[in-house]
Specification:
heterodimer; A: 4 domains; five-stranded mixed sheet; B: Arc Repressor Mutant, subunit A; globular; binds zinc ion
C-alpha cells in the first residue's frame, strides 16, 4: 500500500472505522513510514483535542426556561388551532373567488399556469420528464438517469398540476384532461376514504352554568375526546362565561354536537368541513416517488467508486430525505386533524334564557363570529365545488391548481 | 396536558437536557443560539412525544431533532445572507462564534477551527469526536447509510487538519 492510499484511509483508521484488511495494511505501513506515522499522530491528537472540548454545561435556570416554553407552547397551540383553520379557509376562499370571478378564465389561466410553473421550479426533487436527462451530469451513467426518471415519473401522476411544463402550457393542453385527471383522482379517493377536517362553533346560553360546563366536558371525555383549551371569565354583571375547545373523534362528532341541545339553549351552531383529500393524495404520491428515489440513491451510494460521486449522490440523498421528512410531517398533521374534529363552544350564563342576548362579551368575539358567519355563508354557496386547503403557505400553490381544474371543468360544460 | 406526559417530559429532560444544549452549542457556536435551539427542540419533542414510536432509539431521535433544527437555522441564515445584497462581508456570520480563550492552546485552536468547517462536516466531528456517538448512531441521527457517515467523517477530519496546519506543532507530540 502506498503513502497516498494510506493517507486517504488514516482519518478512519484512528477510531477503527476501517475494515480488518484495510486496518491491517495501514498498521503495517505505519510501522515502516515515519511520515505517515506523523500524520497519524496529528489526526489522533486533533480528535483527542476535540474530545477534550466536550459539551459546556447549560446556564442556570435552563430547565425552568425549557419547561416554561414547552408549557406555553402547549397552551398556545390549543388556543390557536381554530383560528388558524378559519384563516386558512378564508384565504382559500378568497383565492377561489378571485380566480373564478374573472369570468371566461383566460387571465386566470395564465395566472395559474405560471403558478404551476413556479411549483415545478421549486419542486426540484421532481424534475419534469423532459428535463430528467439534464440531471445526469454526474458521471455515474445510466443508473443515475434511472433515478432522475423515477423522480420525473411523478410528473405523470393524475395530480398533473405538478407537470408544470416549463414551455408555458397552451390552452389546448390545459383543456385536455388536466381537470378531469384531478377529478378522477379525487373520485377514486371516495372508494377509499376522504380526508375531511371537521369543525364546529357553538354558543350556548344556560341558567345552570356549572352543570352545562361539566356536561359538555364530560360528554367529550366519554366519547374519547379531550379538552384542548378552556377559559372562564366573569362578566361585569357577575354572570360567567366559558370558552371551551374540545377535540372529539370524528366518528362521534355529529353525535356530540347533537347532544349540545340537552346542555343549554343553542344560540349558534355553525359547522364546516374542509376536504383535504386532493392535497393528501398528491402528497402521498410525491412521497412514494421520493422514497423510490431515496432507495435508488442509497443503492447508488453503496456502489459509488469515487469520492466525488459519493459526495454528489450524498447531497442528493440529503435533499431527498429532508423533503421526505417534511411531507411525512404534513401527512401526519392532516391525519391528526382529520381523526379529531374540533368543537369550539362558548357558554354564557344568563338569569333567564333570553332569545337574543344584547351584549356580546367583547368586540373580538363578535368580530370572530361575524367572520365565521361569512365564511360559512360563502362555504355553503360553493359547497361541492371547493376543495378547502389546509396548511401553510406552500399549499396556496395547490389552491391555484385546484382552481385551474375547476375552471377547466366549467369551460368544458359551457361548450357542450 | 396529562400528568403522564409531563412526567415523560421530566424524565426525558433529565436524561437529554444537557446533551441537547451541548450539541446545539457545538453546532451553532454560541450560547444564545444554543438556548434558542434548545427551546425549539424541546417544543418539538413535547409536541411529538406521543408520535414517537421507537423506530429509532429515543436518544437518536432527540439528537436528530436537535441536528435538524440547527441545520435548518444555519441554512436559513445562509439564504438570508446571500439574498442580502451586501456581499462584501459574507464571511461575517449573523451571530458570531464565541471566541474562547482557553488555558489550553490546543482546545482554543480546535474550537476556532471547527467553525471554519462546513456545517455538515462540523456536525459529524461534533457527534463523533466530541460527543462520542458511534458510527451507527450517527447514521441513525442523520438518517443516512453508514458509508455516508464514513466518507463525510473522513473528509471532515482531513479538512480540520488542513485548517489547523499552522498550529500543527500543538498536535505533533505522540500519545497525548
Ligand atoms: Zn507512508
Amino acid at each position: 500500500m502506498d503513502c497516498d492510499k494510506v493517507k486517504e484511509l488514516l482519518p478512519l483508521y484512528i477510531d477503527g472505522g476501517l475494515s480488518d484488511d484495510e486496518s491491517k495494511a495501514v498498521s503495517e505501513h505505519l510501522a515502516d513510514c515515519p511520515q505517515c506515522m506523523a500524520e497519524y499522530e496529528q489526526l489522533k491528537n486533533i480528535a483527542a483535542a476535540c474530545k477534550d472540548l466536550g459539551f459546556p454545561d447549560p446556564p442556570s435556570g435552563y430547565k425552568q426556561r425549557m419547561t416554561a416554553v414547552v408549557e406555553e407552547d402547549a397552551k398556545k397551540r390549543r388556543k390557536g388551532m381554530f383560528g388558524a383553520a378559519a384563516a386558512v379557509i378564508a384565504a382559500a376562499l378568497l383565492i377561489f373567488i378571485s380566480v373564478s370571478s374573472i369570468g371566461d378564465g383566460n387571465v386566470a389561466m395564465d395566472e395559474t399556469a405560471s403558478t404551476a410553473q413556479y411549483a415545478g421550479e421549486i419542486a426540484e426533487s421532481q424534475p419534469p420528464q423532459n428535463q430528467a436527462a439534464s440531471g445526469s451530469d454526474v458521471s455515474t451513467g445510466d443508473e443515475w438517469k434511472a433515478v432522475s426518471d423515477a423522480a420525473g415519473a411523478s410528473a405523470e401522476t393524475p395530480q398533473s398540476g405538478y407537470k408544470a411544463d416549463q414551455s408555458a402550457p397552451t390552452e389546448e393542453t390545459t383543456d385536455t384532461g388536466e381537470g378531469t385527471g384531478q377529478d378522477l383522482a379525487i373520485a377514486s379517493a371516495d372508494a377509499q376514504q376522504r380526508k375531511i377536517i371537521k369543525s364546529a362553533y357553538l354558543s350556548l346560553e344556560t341558567e345552570n352554568f356549572d352543570n352545562t360546563v361539566n356536561s359538555i366536558i364530560g360528554r367529550a371525555t366519554a366519547l374519547g375526546g379531550y379538552v384542548s383549551n378552556s377559559e372562564y371569565n366573569n362578566r361585569s354583571e357577575g354572570k360567567r362565561t366559558a370558552h371551551i375547545e374540545v377535540k372529539v373523534p370524528q366518528q362521534s362528532f355529529e353525535q356530540y354536537l347533537s347532544d349540545m341541545g340537552g346542555y343549554g339553549k343553542v344560540v349558534e351552531d355553525r359547522r364546516s368541513g374542509q376536504d383535504v383529500t386532493a392535497q393528501y393524495i398528491d402528497t402521498e404520491t410525491r412521497l412514494k416517488m421520493l422514497r423510490i428515489k431515496e432507495q435508488k440513491l442509497m443503492d447508488l451510494l453503496s456502489k459509488a467508486e469515487t469520492l466525488q460521486d459519493m459526495f454528489t449522490i450524498q447531497d442528493q440523498l440529503t435533499n431527498t430525505q429532508i423533503e421526505i421528512e417534511r411531507l411525512t410531517g404534513d401527512l401526519k398533521r392532516w391525519d391528526d386533524m382529520v381523526d379529531y374534529s374540533t368543537a369550539v363552544i362558548d357558554i354564557y350564563e344568563v338569569a333567564e334564557i333570553e332569545p337574543e342576548p344584547e351584549d356580546n362579551p367583547n368586540i373580538w368575539k363578535r368580530i370572530g363570529k361575524a367572520f365565521v358567519d361569512s365564511i360559512n355563508a360563502i362555504g355553503r354557496f360553493f359547497e361541492g365545488f371547493i376543495v378547502f386547503l389546509f396548511g401553510a403557505v406552500p399549499y396556496l400553490v395547490l389552491i391555484g391548481i385546484v382552481a385551474w381544474g375547476v375552471i377547466t371543468f366549467i369551460k368544458n360544460r359551457m361548450r357542450t | 396536558m396529562g400528568g403522564e406526559r409531563v412526567a415523560d417530559f421530566e424524565t426525558l429532560f433529565d436524561e437529554y437536557g444537557d446533551k441537547v444544549y451541548g450539541l446545539a452549542y457545538r453546532l451553532m457556536g454560541n450560547r444564545d443560539d444554543a438556548m434558542d435551539i434548545s427551546q425549539e427542540v424541546f417544543v418539538k419533542i413535547f409536541r411529538n412525544l406521543k408520535a414517537f414510536k421507537g423506530q429509532s432509539t429515543l436518544a437518536t431521535w432527540v439528537y436528530r431533532i436537535t441536528y435538524n433544527t440547527c441545520m435548518d437555522e444555519l441554512r436559513r441564515r445562509k439564504i438570508k445572507q446571500v439574498s442580502i445584497a451586501d456581499k462584501s462581508d459574507l464571511a461575517d456570520d449573523n451571530t458570531p462564534v464565541e471566541e474562547i480563550y482557553e488555558a489550553d492552546e490546543r482546545k482554543e485552536a480546535v474550537h476556532n477551527a471547527l467553525y471554519k468547517l462546513d456545517d455538515d462536516q462540523r456536525a459529524i466531528i461534533v457527534m463523533r469526536d466530541i460527543q462520542g456517538l458511534s458510527y451507527e448512531e450517527i447514521a441513525e441521527v442523520l438518517q443516512c447509510p453508514l458509508g455516508t457517515v464514513k466518507s463525510r467523517l473522513s473528509r471532515a477530519r482531513l479538512n480540520l487538519k488542513e485548517i489547523l496546519k499552522d498550529y500543527m506543532e500543538l498536535f505533533n507530540e505522540a500519545g497525548v
